[in-house]
Amino acid sequence: MSSNSKNNLQWSFYLVLLLMFYSTCVYAREFNIPRLGAFQGKKVFQQHKNVEVDAESISISDDFQTFFYPQTLDHFNYQPQSYATFQQKFVISFKYWGGANASAPILAYLGEEAPLAYETPLYYKSFFNDLAIQFNALQVLIEHRFYGDSIPYGSSSEAAKNASLRGYFSSAQAIADYAEVLQHVKKNLSAETSPVIVVGGSYGGMLASWFRLKYPHIAFGALASSAPILYFDDIVPENKGYYSVVTKDFREESESCYETIRKSWSEIDKVGSEQNGLSILSQRFNSCSPLNNTSELKDFLDTIYTASAQYDDPIFNPVNLVCGGINGASYGNDTLSRIYAGVVALFGSQYCLPLPRCTEMVMPIGIDINDTMFPPHPFNLTSFTEVCMRRYGVPPRPHWVTTYFGGHDIMLILERFGSNIIFSNGLKDPYSCGGVLENISATLLAIYTEKGSHCLDLHKPDSKDPEWLVSQRKKEIRIIRGWFAKYYAQLQESKH
Amino acid sequence: MSSNSKNNLQWSFYLVLLLMFYSTCVYAREFNIPRLGAFQGKKVFQQHKNVEVDAESISISDDFQTFFYPQTLDHFNYQPQSYATFQQKFVISFKYWGGANASAPILAYLGEEAPLAYETPLYYKSFFNDLAIQFNALQVLIEHRFYGDSIPYGSSSEAAKNASLRGYFSSAQAIADYAEVLQHVKKNLSAETSPVIVVGGSYGGMLASWFRLKYPHIAFGALASSAPILYFDDIVPENKGYYSVVTKDFREESESCYETIRKSWSEIDKVGSEQNGLSILSQRFNSCSPLNNTSELKDFLDTIYTASAQYDDPIFNPVNLVCGGINGASYGNDTLSRIYAGVVALFGSQYCLPLPRCTEMVMPIGIDINDTMFPPHPFNLTSFTEVCMRRYGVPPRPHWVTTYFGGHDIMLILERFGSNIIFSNGLKDPYSCGGVLENISATLLAIYTEKGSHCLDLHKPDSKDPEWLVSQRKKEIRIIRGWFAKYYAQLQESKH
Fold first, then answer.
1. Do residues A365 and A379 make contact, with C-beta atoms less than 8 angstroms apart?
2. Can the keyword Protease be found in this entry's annotation (chains A, B) (predicted)?
3. What pTM was computed for the model?
4. Which one, of B189, B162, B141, lies nearest residue B84 by Cα?
5. Which residue, A39, A239, A321, A460, has fewest beta-carbon neighbours within 10 Å?
6. Per-residue b/e over B141-151, b at no fewer than 16 CB within 10 Å?
7. Alpha-carbon Rg for chain B in angstroms
8. For residue A487, what are the contacts with CB-CB under 8 A and spacing of at least 6?
9. CB contact under 8 A, B216 and A417
10. Chain A touched by B216 (CB under 8 Å)
């Protein structure tokens, strides 16, 4: 496989992840319309499938042994049904581990909203693997409850139908799961004195930083990549939000590309309102089945732009690709032809969006003002709540994350509380607007790059990586080395 | 009311609390026998009752306004029933408050396993009140879920019958309740910049320290009095446990008293096994109805000794009283007459023990060795579990507290994590064996007294208090003042 096709493949995989993250965690615009079900991203899906039988992937997975832990369904209550257990999957690689006798470290990858699959680029042969080599660490990767093979009572469709069961799908339960699994692993390996560093990206990065804050007795430190822990309640001003960053990314790439996108929305509406307008749009954008309304197309394009900005990998560079297509105009000079060329430049096929989660991860992502290239679409908690009630019969809890995990006045609060967390970010990533971008204390550190994208530091290091990315990773290693140095000194002292 | 009778009354009240705490939280010996239901502590109960109509108490309560907050039944799950609410009681006194504009502090008393009643000596006109005067603080006192007026769906008997409802009775839910109430209070009073210090004693002290660790964004600091947060799992060695401290307290008071108690157990068994032995014991110990077995008497005496040690107030001094009775022998020179004289010296009536809680608060209190004055009775998790299953249909979770809140290696873990907690203890208190007795860091501080008892520092300061107690309270005030000084300096800075 050429390096370019691997990059392409990798990026495509992130798009899939993004679509999941976008929808399960943060999609906050109106979604009471069919979510682009007409589009089927066959090509990307097939590429994705191929990895499973890719010889290299299999050899990677060979380093890992798969285990299952009988996980408690409900950690926080004591009802008879709370005691039910489900099999939670985790995998371990002993390959680089220095062993329990040496108190060699444990690196724990905290799964996000995705199955723990062998092809997931954030896990295997990624920076996580390099960290294990650096520190002679055991690698433990744990699957998030309700994903992959870790679904209570069988299939996810079963779980989705059962409102009572679905109710155990929460971040507090998820990190309590990780606590139990890590204690179990440490105990079974007699590795009680091995310091644990938890690692995660995006939603998984939030879990990693929250895990360090809530379970400091289990995780000694955290590397939280692109974790928008401040993107809740009213912490991020609306005009510094997700869509403002996406717009900035495109405008910095190309002013004319930005302008074309900005005017495309009204053009789509105009054509769509004409006679046969929807079938014209269906044809021009090559949809698999006819569009029912213009929102289906606009939402799809919205996802293309936001995904490109979020995963603006410096090698594959999707924003550059999309704008190249738009500015190149190989399908015609008019606005819609340019927009279509942008989509084609990125990939020929598309994805449908799964349903959103309706409970605690309420990021108020909206477009309230005119400085973005998107049509206005303020976040509306009322309609968000209505959709949740209709779909799941429960309302969201928009303030629970800040109640349980905090976020407001984080500088004041954490300056004298907590330690050993790296908040890494790339400012091209629109979620960086909700990330921690300032050092809070001497050990709660913000390491960001101007040109980085979502979770970029966690990717597998590549010889073509720009200097700033290499340097970001080096900084992270240096910081973690410093934590370990203190830990082992103190451990030594406590033995005397 | 004379100061002496007040002290007597106060102490009696602690005994009631102890009996509750003892049974709901920590009673870990076999309890599949009737828990002294024959004894009715009428005298103590009546004294206790009298306080409710005591003029002074009413005037104290006049400073407080009562409120109810619609509390979330289940903070951690998203089942339809999780959203049910119950009315949680809290009371506020504005009397000493400097106000929101001055960012004047909020002192929050986190209720323990007891109703928030006006006569509770830990709350009103206690050291908590003095702290409010010291710091011009708002006083907020919050009742624990499932106690007093804060019982989901009405009465406690209703709640006890319903296994599903009873399952929401957990410490994680309780501190999440406090988080919501405190956020609600701060918001409603526009007191967002007022620092909150949480205060609690015994189980409430554990909640206070855990609250600071889990909710640092809501509580800026904690005063945790007599909080045995380390009395879980295997953290405290069995020969340094609760009963060893009780024994030490009695032995230090009087070697002969200790000897009499030590040999009394076999004497009780001997008499009990004789013909008419049980009725002889019933008569000699003046039980309200006939004893069914000697365990009923032995368990009662066990409670008398442990309560006396735990609440060994330096003014009332129950260990001294009991030993005075035992050594004085006004009812006869033999062992049993001496023991009875000890009980009479303390009070003429007795209490029955309510049922134990069977979930997370599993303190492995047992008597494994011969260096105590009690008969051997090792802690047995298996039989503890059996009783829980029989009584409530659910097993305990003996490792959950250390999983969720930590405890093992606390010095290593918290030295570089967390801040602003005072762990106060008195070493006469048998629970001090599970308390934090060493400074962990510059702001996680252990303030203990050699002669202090359970929660003694939180009591209302009295002109007869010994110097060491006065000095302990002064230290606590000085430390909290230091926290505030830093907070206000930083707040000021953040405004510029």
1. yes
2. yes
3. 0.83
4. B162
5. A239
6. bbbbbbbbebb
7. 23
8. A195, A220
9. yes
10. yes
Sign of the torsion angle spanned by Cα atoms B409, B412, B418, B422: positive
Reported as a single tens digit per residue, the pLDDT across B1-15 is: 344 444 444 444 444
B136: left (phi over 0), alpha (psi -120 to 50) or beta: left
Which amino acid is it at A247? T
Q: In 10 A of CB A161, how many CB atoms?
A: 10
Are A400 and B494 an interchain contact pair (Cβ–Cβ within 8 Å)?
no
The amino acid sitting at A319 is V
Cβ-contact B12, B44 below 8 angstroms: yes
- In angstroms, the separation between the Cα of residue B363 and the nearest Cα of chain A is 17
What is the rounded CA–CA span in Å between residue B126 and residue B128?
5
Three-state DSSP string of A419-447:
CCEEEEEECCCHHHHHCCCCCCCCCEEEE
Alpha carbons B132 and B387: distance in angstroms, whole number:
43
Instruction: Name residue A482's amino acid.
Output: G
Helix (H, G, I), strand (E, B) or coil at A221: strand
State phi, psi for A221 to the nearest 5 degrees: -165, 170
B400 touches chain A (CB under 8 A): yes
Mean pLDDT of the A374-393 span: 82
Convert the pLDDT of each residue in A22-38 to its tens digit.
333 222 222 222 222 22
The shortest C-alpha distance from A442 to chain B (Å) reads: 11
Q: How far apart are CA B196 and CA B193, in angstroms?
A: 9
Task: Name which of B78, B83, B394 is nearest A80 (Cβ-Cβ).
Answer: B394
Closest by CA to A26, choosing from A149, A206, A152, A157, is: A206
What residue has token string 């606390």? Answer: B410
C-alpha to C-alpha distance for A267 and B243, rounded to whole angstroms: 81
Only one residue has tokens 């405290």, namely B236
Nearest C-alpha in B relative to A486:
B416
Contacts with A214 from chain B: Cβ below 8 Å: 214
**DSSP-derived 3-state class of residue B124:** coil
